């Protein structure tokens, strides 16, 4: 790459690319939509950050590529990149003045141009924009030249301010539920974003801390291994108590999110067995979720009036039906591999949903109207029983489910069965040649996966009290698959991390309203590009990946290393 | 290897055959009882067949993208449905502008070509960009990782186009030259459907020719056979992969315009269902195989349009058309039980994937 482009051309290219990204973001409408969302109140909006961010990123890339050159040259590179980005914006405004872009791009409005030109007259404003862009590039170059310690402190501080500013509304809702404690934090936040004082305090705190910690070895509190053990159990215990208290700390709205994350962890643990351990790509995993939910619905709902069981009476049946479905699906696809398997499982998921939706089975499954008044689980005996109804109460049911299922999953992984699954995943032919019964192995994988997902489905049905076919779209399968791969395929802690990241993320991104799936998609791509092995990879997998990476220098891919 | 059939056949095989047989029996029984009931005339069957072939043609063009990319990278390009969507969603503005100026009805052929060209270019660009950003850095990553970036890219593209053009439905203008139908004897042949079928066949042949006989196509097949060996022969694999994505994207873009001729409404979410169907069709025909994609698509289109009436109506299922997709997937399972690598799939596909 370096040979092909002379350095200033590289700078220009980066700048133009940055400009193109800004134009893309503008035309999507994010810049206009977040023009009133402040990160630091009255100082910096999220919209403005989106206009400057790409310049910073791309001029940084250009500068890093020319890192060996003289400082003056670096400054020049930054300035060229920034100015190039600014010119792209000017070009957009120019085109927008000549022809009516709005006929096609809804967001190419005068509002956008006004934001570009800082609400000044168009001519003067765009010169200002160009200057600011160039300056941003120049400052990036200056930042690059700073000593590493200051650079890290500054970078961390700015990152924290941006994150806190973006999340300010969310943090606000949590804090508001804490009663008088909330007064302690009030000065930090303004109506929108951080207050100026808050920003300065975060800057000094985070920046100072990073500066202080830089280069210091991590202080080990306890050296004695026995005491370390104690500390570890202590942390785990503390974490456990925190998890138990979470719903009361975070309040109603977050409990709902936690419940959803919990359900996805349940299902993720199941799919992790099918995909992660046994290596069978299942794209229709939602089917078992639906089967669990519908079995509970049909058996308990007085509206359909077949059985009127209680939740716990129906529960074993739900699991039995899920297992039967798992084996029924497992049989025809025993011989298929790879992507043939993927499409058949996908089809299975769709078949289940379409059957639930159809008029044909409406008398039994409720069709589009779904099933209402599903029984809630009751815990306890006689007078001491309580019905689990609110999100906070159901949280504990889900938690119990996760603990049991995670325990089973861990034990299975370390068992003989678990090792046969992994042998099958690595190489089916060799595994069979070694005497593994691939039929039984695959079917048990499907059955275990179906059980876990079925449990998830039953709790889901009980939680909502009503189910509709639209809750069981293909998207659910995709989400579960994404979370186990983002977490790290085959890794059990990875399921938890992945579920928190992927299911929690869209909820946290609610701030971005209609754009949240845009950010979600971008985050999914970015996460996989940054960490292809997942956020918390299985130890063996990680080893393999690095083994493959280290010894032979692969074809050099500058994009992969520098991005 | 010389074992009696009793040793070769396992319990699970028998179970699978029973499942397959059950599907077969239900289909045959439904067909017989539908035909006996005489509820539908020959004309309506003809209608359904033509409709199915037209749908199949569109699926075939989209399926090309899946099958070509699969052949070369062994991965499912999940973002392809968005590649398909991007073309028609953009070209609607050109179509409306042409309609407003009156050019559309004065020069229908030229206008459609211009619209298709624009759609093709947009889809091609999107396909190339997706490859560059979401797939290329992950060439050597585990197999499922590009699948996830593809899903991410799919979300991103959907909401990007939603942001660009708004979330509403955008209707394509009607073309007078293609309105109405031709009468052949007692049957009616809708002009749009006839045009779509013909265009799809011509384009599929063209794509086949490119893959089989052009130099780039040969290079493509070489890379798909063995990337390292092809590189040693002086083929730039990266360039060929880009070309593959471009070709698949172009086919999807034109397919998008044909789809619009059948259902003249563009929407940012329009890619999902046809994309899923085309992927199914590619697998049905044997993924990685160009004639297979065509055959699989036609079969799928026919099942979808004929199936509910032919197989399910006779069984007394109400509103059978609700189940057309379920039926398509059941037939897919049925076919894959007996031919595990698709209708035309090579046997080796079993060990490759």
Descriptive overview:
The complex is a heterodimer of chains A (563) and B (353). By secondary structure, chain A is mainly α. Chain A folds into three domains: 145 residues; 71 residues, no CATH class; 222 residues, no CATH class. Chain A is built from 23 helices and four strands. A two-stranded antiparallel sheet of chain A has the order 1-2. Chain A has a two-stranded antiparallel sheet with strand order 3-4. In chain A, strand 1 and strand 2 form a beta hairpin. In chain A, helix 1 runs antiparallel to helix 3, helix 10 runs antiparallel to helix 19 and helix 12 runs antiparallel to helix 18. The longest helix of chain A has 53 residues. The C terminus of chain A is likely disordered. With 353 residues, chain B is mainly α. Chain B has a single domain, classed as ABC transporter involved in vitamin B12 uptake, BtuC (Orthogonal Bundle). Helix content of chain B is 74%, strand content 3%. Chain B contains 15 helices and four strands. In chain B, the strands form two sheets. Chain B has a two-stranded antiparallel sheet. In chain B, strand 2 and strand 3 form a beta hairpin. Chains A and B meet through helix 1, helix 13, helix 19, helix 21 and helix 22 of A and helix 2, helix 7, helix 12, helix 14 and helix 15 of B.
